[in-house]
């Protein structure tokens, strides 16, 4: 009886030594998939920063009680609210498995175009609001957070481009495969193997 227990214990230890380095937990059981194929840890933090700065800029702008020329205030309000809500939605979709339920296959292109457009809109609306306000502390603070949010969106675009290239061009950076970069010599090697087999 004791020998059987020792044998089982040895088999269990040997099995755990053999399989533990190569097996991984099931990723579908986790609600947060960071890093994932669409969002790595650095961009996840940058997107959280975008949500934070956009929400603070929106809240500060909402507290402003009067305006001399309200166009700049309303434009800034629209951009900050839109950026906050849609960036939060995009962050939730890309950091969970929810993005698979929509049937959209071009998430990198969507993410890149959205982030670039919001960076431009934030920059323009922040400049307009900075040049046309009453000069109150709340307005200056809102403008400051508008420029910080602009910077966060620009950083996101730069990180995306450096790591993945332009997603909608076929000449973008090659994705890595099996731990190493994809090389252009793979088809030539396949042709050589086929020639040897003939």
Automatic annotation (TrEMBL):
GO cellular component, one term: membrane
A Pfam entry, by short name: MARVEL
UniProt region (Disordered), positions on chain: 173-198
Bilayer topology: Multi-pass membrane protein
Compositional bias annotation for Basic and acidic residues: 187-198
Keywords: Membrane, Transmembrane, Transmembrane helix
Signal peptide: none
Chain ranges of the MARVEL domain: 38-165
Listed transmembrane segments: 72-94, 106-130, 142-161
Subcellular location: Membrane
Protein name: CKLF-like MARVEL transmembrane domain-containing protein 6
Annotated organism of origin: Solea senegalensis
